[in-house]
Design a protein that fits this description.
The chain is built from 9 helices and no strands. The chain is an all-alpha fold.
């Protein structure tokens, strides 16, 4: 069976993703990405206008990968509470399975341009919409939806950090615990 050949553009994106996760956005450059790929320093300009354009492509790559995972769950699970719980657990697994993604998503890098920060915010957009729908269906206020969203996000990033740092063992018992905690947060009583 033949493997899918990776394009130069995708090589640049994946290299940029790794380099940002290792060194941050401030140390990120097209020259470093090209060198990491074994390409000429002019090669990135065939695919990207500048460093910000490559950064935007990297963030779109992360966004699209997460969107595919999330879409499968939404298509398969019709119960909104179970759907939200599954999405939350899948997001933690997604961050753990993709350490370069996790490093960028959780970096809070102040060197990131506004357009890229805006795209980062879109990673959780569908989940936030689902939480708001769930809370609205229960007759709760928009303020309650914002509080619930903040709490769920804090749990997801906190558990992701605890699992990735080894503070919490990355095993099925831990994921069962996380699932119970997250599911309980969707209790609306």
């Amino acid at each position: 069976m033949g493997q899918t050949k990776i394009t130069s553009r995708e090589r640049l994106i994946l290299s940029g993703l790794r380099l940002i996760s290792e060194n941050g956005v401030a140390a990120f450059s097209l020259r470093a990405v090209a060198a990491d790929c074994g390409l000429s320093c002019a090669a990135p300009y065939r695919h990207f206008k500048n460093k910000d354009d490559l950064l935007l492509a990297i963030l779109r790559y992360i966004h699209d990968a997460w969107h595919r995972v999330q879409s499968v769950i939404i298509a398969e699970e019709k119960d909104l509470r179970r759907c939200l719980t599954k999405i939350c657990i899948a997001y933690i697994r997604f961050l753990l399975d993709n350490p370069s993604f996790r490093a960028i998503v959780m970096s809070g890098d102040r060197g990131m341009p506004p357009a890229q920060k805006q795209l980062m915010g879109k990673l959780s957009e569908r989940t936030v919409q689902l939480i708001h729908t769930y809370v609205a269906n229960a007759g709760l206020t928009e303020e309650a939806a914002h509080r619930k969203t903040g709490l769920i996000r804090a749990l997801l990033y906190g558990y992701s950090f605890m699992l990735s740092s080894g503070e919490l063992p990355e095993n099925e018992d831990s994921f069962a615990l996380i699932e119970r905690v997250v599911s309980r947060e969707f209790d609306l009583s």
